[in-house]
């Protein structure tokens, strides 16, 4: 196996969106230090390598905080400790790494999302710009924002880009940190700001610029989410580029699907499994070569006895018994 250098790994991180080099660079450097012979002798070092492979996967596809998990495992190994059963269970529960195509599509999508660019999947930019222009001229909106700034020091709530975001609402309307503690100044501000954003269809404010809710398409670890703002009158044929949405979503789908395909696949899998059992029985009885193949095909009741077809079916059985 070719060992990738530290410089190559850091370059891989730098090519990902969301400041991944800044975020995970130190973990990757520590991983390379732990790859020295002393670290590799640790019984759980392969588990660390397996977890750290996720550091190079687009963040959109992470099922959990892999950054935190890698830090925990690195700390255990650096101190010569074994991984406890719950950590090993977590590592075993993780799905295989997404395929190269899925990672490439997700990485490109993340860069576009980071720029606020949904043009590949959304075709209604003019509709958005018109409402944004009207909002900027709305006197009630400007007065409402001025009142909030008079009551609160909004600079305390801006991020490094000068943006204040409303509270996120998760799938099926689940909301984290939902309870209102009016005695807490930060909670008071967030409640007022969330209500303000709902009234004016915002996901936040960038300094004094309203960030109007957009029609968006986003990948999540569990699926593809199409968000239609409450103010948006949807024309599903004109507003969305379904071909691009399908490309984005299907990058992770392992194969074509559908009732007919599923039935055919099940029948093919059953035939392959039966062929493998018959082939094993023929081997055990001492049959070889053409005699074994003919016996298996006769038991399968194939009308046309084609040895090449049998080899393909047995190859399929082997793949099914050893999934990736």
How are the secondary structure elements laid out?
Layout: H1 6-14, H2 20-34, H3 37-40, H4 45-52, H5 66-78, H6 85-93, H7 100-114, H8 125-136, H9 139-151, E1 163-165, H10 185-200, E2 202-206, E3 209-212, E4 216-220, E5 223-227, H11 242-250, H12 259-284, H13 289-299, H14 307-321
Antiparallel strand pairs: 1-2, 2-3, 4-5
Description:
With 324 residues, the chain is mainly alpha-helical. The chain has three domains: 92 residues, no CATH class; 139 residues, no CATH class; 63 residues. The chain contains 14 helices and five strands. It has a three-stranded antiparallel sheet. A hairpin with a 2-residue loop joins strand 2 and strand 3. The longest helix is centred in the last third of the chain and has 26 residues. The radius of gyration is 28 Å and the shape is extended. The protein starts with 5 loop residues before the first helix and ends with a helix. The model has no long low-confidence stretch (mean pLDDT 89).
């Amino acid at each position: 196996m070719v060992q990738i250098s530290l410089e190559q790994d850091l370059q891989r991180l730098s090519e990902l969106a969301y400041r991944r080099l800044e975020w995970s660079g130190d973990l990757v450097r520590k991983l390379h230090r732990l790859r020295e012979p002393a670290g590799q002798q640790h019984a759980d070092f392969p588990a660390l390598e397996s977890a750290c492979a996720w550091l190079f996967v687009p963040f959109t596809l992470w099922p959990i905080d892999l950054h935190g998990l890698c830090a925990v495992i690195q700390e255990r190994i650096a101190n010569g400790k074994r991984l406890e059963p719950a950590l090993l269970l977590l590592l075993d529960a993780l799905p295989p790494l997404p395929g190269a195509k899925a990672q490439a599509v997700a990485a490109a999508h993340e860069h576009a999302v980071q720029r606020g660019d949904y043009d590949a999947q959304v075709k209604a930019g003019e509709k958005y710009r018109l409402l944004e222009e009207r909002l900027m001229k709305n006197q009630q909106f400007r007065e409402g924002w001025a009142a909030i700034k008079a009551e609160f020091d909004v600079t305390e709530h801006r991020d490094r880009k000068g943006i204040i975001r409303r509270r996120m609402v998760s799938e099926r309307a689940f909301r984290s940190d939902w309870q209102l503690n009016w005695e807490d100044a930060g909670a008071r501000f967030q409640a007022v700001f969330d209500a303000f954003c709902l009234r004016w269809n915002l996901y936040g404010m960038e300094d004094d610029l309203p960030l109007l809710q957009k029609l968006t398409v986003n990948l999540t670890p569990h699926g593809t989410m199409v968000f239609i703002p409450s103010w948006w009158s949807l024309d599903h044929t004109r507003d969305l580029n379904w071909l691009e949405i399908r490309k984005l979503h299907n990058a992770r789908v392992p194969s074509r699907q559908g009732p007919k395909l599923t039935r055919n696949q099940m029948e093919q899998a059953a035939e392959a499994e039966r062929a493998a059992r018959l082939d094993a029985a023929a081997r055990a009885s001492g049959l070889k070569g053409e005699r074994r193949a003919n016996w298996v095909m006769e038991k399968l009741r194939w009308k046309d006895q084609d040895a090449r077809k049998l080899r393909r079916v047995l190859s399929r059985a082997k793949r099914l018994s050893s999934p990736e």
